[in-house]
Each structure stands twice: as structure tokens, then as C-alpha cells.
Amino acid sequence: MIYIAGISIALFFELLLINKKQKTLSDKIMIVWILLIVIHLYLFYLVHSSQNFTYPFLLGIEQGLPLFYGIFLFFYVGATVEIIPKKKWVILAHFLPIIVCYLYLINFFSLPTDQKIYVYENQGAGFENFMKVKTILFPLHGLLYIYWTLNLLKKHSLNIRLQFSNLDNINLNWLRMLIYGTGCLWILVLFLPENYIFIAIAFFVFIISYFGIKQDPIFSNGKLEQIPNIPKDSETIGPVIKKYSKSGLTKEHSEKIYEKLIHVFSKEKLYADCELTLADLASKLETKSNYLSQIINEKEGANFFDFVNSYRLKAFLDLVSDQKHQKLTVLGMAYDCGFSSKSSFNRYFKKIMQKTPTEYIKGFSN
User: Fold this and answer.
1) How far apart are CA 166 and CA 308, in angstroms?
2) What is the torsion angle, in degrees rounded to the nearest 10, for the CA atoms of residue 59, residue 60, residue 64 and residue 65?
3) Which pLDDT belongs to residue 360?
4) What does residue 74 show for φ and ψ, rounded to 5 degrees?
5) Do residues 185 and 200 touch, judged by C-beta distance below 8 A?
6) How confident is the model at residue 238 (pLDDT cuts 50, 70, 90)?
7) The CATH number of domain 2-214, selected from 1.10.260, 1.20.1070, 3.30.450, 1.10.287
8) Residue 267 CB: number of other CB atoms within 10 A?
9) Are residues 153 and 172 in contact, defined by beta-carbon separation less than 8 angstroms?
10) CATH code of the domain made up of 237-365
11) Could you tell me the pTM of the whole model?
């Protein structure tokens, strides 16, 4: 019954996605992915219920379906965070293992019905090498895509911090759940019998259907641009210079924008806008977002998120030290300085100050 339930839930989710207005590219990818899961579950159900030989023309179709899981995960996450290959040959390269798999299986599909059944009844007789390769390489293929997709999400997370000063409206939990859930399936493939794996796939369908319907937008602050990330703290200034070696920003122009940035940022207290973005600030300074990100990276050694929030933190500390503001609540002062929520304020404060706001204020007053 679990397989029928999984198929039913998947089909319901499929219909919801198909009927969704203004479908995104990620929605379209998910529609195809869910359809493949439905086919995979159905084909296994036929095996589990001993009905697979009733429809011998379907035998062998399921063999290459596991290869789709990692690929569709990668492209779904890539489409959602707007980091996806544009070149057709790159996209085709991802599907090359599947093409090779089914080209090899032509040998099986061309067999007479009785011989197909014989192969299945005798643990892949005549195709032993294929079964060995499948047992080893398919899970490795899936886990490799988990690794690539996690790197894709990490790249997106860094890009967010380059362009937004507030991360409260940015929710990546759904994507992380999807990646880790798919990763767990591949780990189960390595250790559990096939019937348990398909039970896990059925539960996986329940989860992605439920959270896929409920998920909030990944971010609601605007469209992300692809901006080079600042090198890690452990890297020297060499890579920074090399990173921007092809930038059209001159040293004189950089100095001019930086002076204007510091002046305007302090005088107009732009940091107090909790929804401030890199694009907003670049527009006010009449420059390009890429240039402004480069200037903040080079001059401040920080990304946009940390640059803005360092000003917010300094403003908060100034308020705490000023006697006339001591009647205000801690959260009230944080909001005045541009922090958008208690959790984000506490998290950033503790990261920088190595203590909570309450601990700091108690120590300050003593």
C-alpha cells in the first residue's frame, strides 16, 4: 500500500504543479522529476506485486531511472537560485551517462519476451557486468551530484551576502532539505535491500510534496546578480587583485566612489533601512553593483552584508553608551539601527562581540 500511496501523493503534487499559474523553470523541472518518480515507483510496484511479467514491454525501463535523480536535483536547485548552465552542450553532458546506459540496454530491449523474462528471473543473466557497474557507479553518480548541488547552494549563499543586508526573508531550508533527503536515499541504496529503498522513496515523495507546496519564496528582495565572491580571510591580497584584474574600475574612480560611499552612508544613515540592497546603494551612488561590491571588498575586506551590519552594530553600541537612549528597549534600539528581527540581531551581535546583547549591556552598566 505504501507504494500506491506514494504514487497517489506524487500524482496529486504533479497536478498542483501543472495547474500552477506563472510556472518558473524550477517548477517545470520539478514536474518532470516527479513524473519520473511516479514511473519509477509504479514499475517497482509491478515487480513487488509480481505483475511485471504481465507487461513485458516495460521490463528494463527502470534500470536507468536512478541516474535522473541527481541530475534533476542539480538542475532544480540551480534553476531556483538562478545558477544554471546556459550552453546546450553542457546540459547534454549531464545526461550523457543516461544516454550511454539506455544505448547499452538496447541489447536487452531487442530480446524476445521470453528471454527478457529469463534475464529477470535469473538475476540479470547475460548482463552481469551491467549489474555490477550499476551497483557501484549509480550510487557514486548520485552522491557526486549531491556534492555538486551543495556547492551550488553554498555559492548562492555567498552571493546573497554580497547583495543583501538582511537575510530574514531569504529561506534556503527547503533546498537543503531536498538535497539532504536525496543524499539519504543514495546512502540507503548502498546498505538496504531494494524494497526498503522504495519505501524510503515513497516517504521522500510525501516530504517533497508537503514542503514543496508550503515552501516560501527563496528570497523576496529582488533579482540576484552574479557577482564575484570576496576571497576567504586566509587568502592573500594577490588573489584579490587577480580577481578584479579585468574589472573596468580605475583606481581614481574607486577612490571617488568609496569617499562618497562613506560620506553618504554615515550622513544619511542608510544602514537604518533594514531592506537595503547592494543594487539600492549602487543606484544612490550612481555606480554599478559590481563596482560597488568590488570597492567594499577591496577597501573594507568584507562583503556587503557584513559591511552594512557593522555600521548597524556600531550605531547600536553608540545608542547603548548614550544615557538619553537607555529608556529604550534593546530590541527597539536594534530596530532603529536597521536590524530586522531579534534573532538576526542576536546572531550577528554574538558573532562579532562574542557575547549576547544582554550580557554586553550588563557588563557596560557595571
Assistant:
1) 9
2) 0
3) 84
4) -60, -45
5) yes
6) very low
7) 1.20.1070
8) 8
9) yes
10) 1.10.10.60
11) 0.79
Cα-only R_g, the chain: 27
Q: Give ∠ CA 54-55-61 in degrees, rounded to 5.
A: 140
Are the C-beta atoms of 344 and 316 separated by less than 8 Å? no
Question: Do residues 308 and 165 lie in contact, with contact meaning Cβ atoms separated by under 8 Å?
Answer: yes
Length of the chain: 366
Provide the sign of the torsion angle of the four alpha carbons 185, 120, 97, 39, taken in this order: negative
Q: Which residues sit opposite 164 in a β-bridge? A: 277
SS (H, E, C) the chain: CHHHHHHHHHHHHHHHHHCCCCCCHHHHHHHHHHHHHHHHHHHHHHHHCCCHHHCHHHCCHHHHCHHHHHHHHHHHHHHHCCCCCCCHHHHHHHCHHHHHHHHHCHHHHCCCHHHHHHHHHCCCCCCHHHHHHHHHHHHHHHHHHHHHHHHHHHHHHHHHHHHECCCCCCCCHHHHHHHHHHHHHHHHHHHCCHHHHHHHHHHHHHHHHHHHHHCCCCCCCCCCCCCCCCCCCCCCHHHHHHHCCCCCCCHHHHHHHHHHHHHHHHHCCHHHCCCCEHHHHHHHCCCCHHHHHHHHHHHHCCCHHHHHHHHHHHHHHHHHHCHHHCCCCHHHHHHHCCCCCHHHHHHHHHHHHCCCHHHHHHHHHC
> Cell for 146?
549531491
Cell digits for 363?
557588563
CA–CA dist 105, 100 (Å, integer): 9
Gap between the Cα atoms of 215 and 171, Å rounded:
9
Residue ranges, comma separated, of all CATH 1.10.10.60 domains in the chain are: 237-365
Terminal Cα distance for the chain, rounded: 66
Helix axes 289-300, 304-321, angle to 10 degrees: 60
Which tens digits make up the pLDDT trace of 10-31?
888 888 888 888 888 888 898 8
Within 10 angstroms of residue 138's Cβ, the number of other Cβ atoms is 20
Three cell numbers, residue 354 = 562574542
Which pLDDT value is given to residue 101?
Answer: 94
